[in-house]
Every structure is written in C-alpha cells, then in structure tokens.
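Handoff note, outgoing to incoming analyst
You'll be picking up this chain. Sequence as last confirmed:
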Amino acid sequence: MSTCSCGKPADTFGGLCGRCAALQTLGLEPYTSPAEIEDAYRTLVKVWHPDRFQNDQKLRRAAEEKLKEINAAHDYLASGAAVEVPRFVTEERESIPKPEEPAAETFVAPESTDEEEPDEVRRVLKHYQRRSSKTVLPRVFFAAGGIAVVAFLWISTDLLLSANPMTQRPWEEFKTELSRDVHASVVRLWGNASDDLHKSQAETAAPPAAPTQGNEPAPVPKATVKTGAETRATTPANAATGAKPYITSGLTPTEVLAILGNPTSSSGEKMFYNGTEIDFRDGRVAAWKIDPKTPIRVKLWPDQALVPGVQAFAIGSPKSDVIALQGTPTHFSDNEFGYGGSIVYFKNDRVAGWKEDPASVRLRVVAK
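Most recent structure output, in case you need it:
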C-alpha cells in the first residue's frame, strides 16, 4: 500500500489519504488549520452555488456537481477525521494557537450585489463558454451540412426524373401532391392559431351578453360574405344545416382551402375538385367551371339592385342584371357566364351576346 505525503496510508486513487484528498478538493495544503478550512469552504460555496448560474443550465449542473464534492470534503474534515501535525512543522507554526473548530454552518445563498465577480467565477465562466462553443458550433455545421446534402439529393433527383419521359408525369404529380399537402398543413396550423387568437381576443373584449326576457329567442348572428372588393352582411342560412360557406369571386387560395379542404389536384393557378375547376388570377378567385356530378357551393351577388319592372336582359345590360335575373352561373369568367349549355357573352362588363340551349337552362332575354 502506498503512503501519502503526510505519512498516512494512501486510500485514494490519487495516492492521498482521505484528509489530504478532502483538503485538495478545497484547494488547501495538507497542514491547514480548521479556521482556514471553514474560510475556504465558505468562499468555494459562494463561488459554486448553483443559484449563480440560473441563466445557463450547463453551468448550473456543473456547479451542482462541484458543490457536492465541496460539501463532501467539508463534511469529512468536520467529522473529526484529522491527523496530528508532524513534529517537523516549524516552531513558528507551532507557536500559533489553534482556534477551536467551529461547527459546520448551513450556507445561505448571498443576495446578488453589484460587486465584481471573483476570479474563480470568471475563470469557470470562460471555461464553460469555450466548452459550449466547441460543442454548439459542430452541431450547427452538422445540421447545415445535412440540409445541404438533402437539397443536393432533391435537386439531382428532380433533374433526373424530370428529364425522363417515362417518369416525368408521375414525378410532377408527386411534387404537386407534396406541395399541396405542405401548403394545406401550413394553412391548417395558421388557421388554428388565428382562431385561438381571435377567440381569446373576443373573450377578453366582448361584454357579457344581456339576459333574454321570458322565452324570447336570442338574436341570430350575422355573417359576412366576401364578393370581390366588397363585404355583405347576411344571415347564415346554412348555420342550422352545417353546410359549407359559398365560394365566390375574390377569395384567396387559403380561404378556398379552409372551405373545401385539399383539392384532388392543382396546376399553376388552378385547383381541381374532381371535375370542378377553380381558377385564380393575382391570388384571387377569378373563374370557375362547376361539374354537375361534383358540384360545390358558389355564389355571385349583383353589384346593384335590379331596376323595378325589368324582367329580361338585352345587349348592353350590365352583369349585375344577368346575375339578378339568372342567378349564379355554373361557368364563370370575365367574359362569359354559363348556365348549363346556355352562355352569355360580355365585353367591357356589358352583355355582348348569348347562345341559348333550349334543352338546358332558358335565358331570360328580351325577345327579338
């Protein structure tokens, strides 16, 4: 068995006895007085107390482990496991009276002050900051490298499959489907977040509802329907049936997705719901073609009221008259309104002509 420098048997892996190992943990020499031990213990506890590192979890965990070692060393030294001072200690040292060993005190974290941090704290902070930078930077570079590799593989695959006539069409359909799914997910998440925000704002700002008297039913709320640049207030007739809102001109793709969900396919500025087609221009609904087998709810409102007594439209009539007399077209664009097999043609938003299919929808036009 090896021997410690103080002459006692070494019972640690470092070739030290228990007392010298505890003193080394506190940063003290082998022949240190109890008062010096207590003074060093208090200083180290202040330096390594975890409350000093609340803003850095890594430093806080390191401080907790270090404080455990300091407390264990102090407890060992305070338990009476000490050795006598050898005779070869100088007479000057022996002449100094030894104060009585005070009892161990429970440390209370000091209040934060504006005093300069001790050298030990600055040294520890610099050490762990360097250590953190050495671990964080490789992770950032690794993540950036992974993104670059994925992007390279995607571009290479896209070029390869797009150049092959056998795989070009399936690959384009796959990309369209993937883009649509990602877009729908973003829209869904954004819509849920907006609904939660609006709900919380409404609950905060809305005054308590006035109680109804007797058996009087509560008023039916109003709903707003967008048509182009204007907004109309209407009573939601579909509130009781749970029907979806109307698709109308001027809606954005996000609003269409919120009403109809994911389309069966899309291409450019077109969305397809089975046989029904919705066209966009400048990010707004500008046209549609409704398939009778897969209809969706569409609606156009006249910009102005129909003149009393007018029961038919003619050459030069505005679009609002055609909408008021014929209703919402199943085929809608800037220059054509389709009602089944019948079509009304426009030029400068005025009726320029029509083609009527007697076996389909009859047009309410002025007889020639």
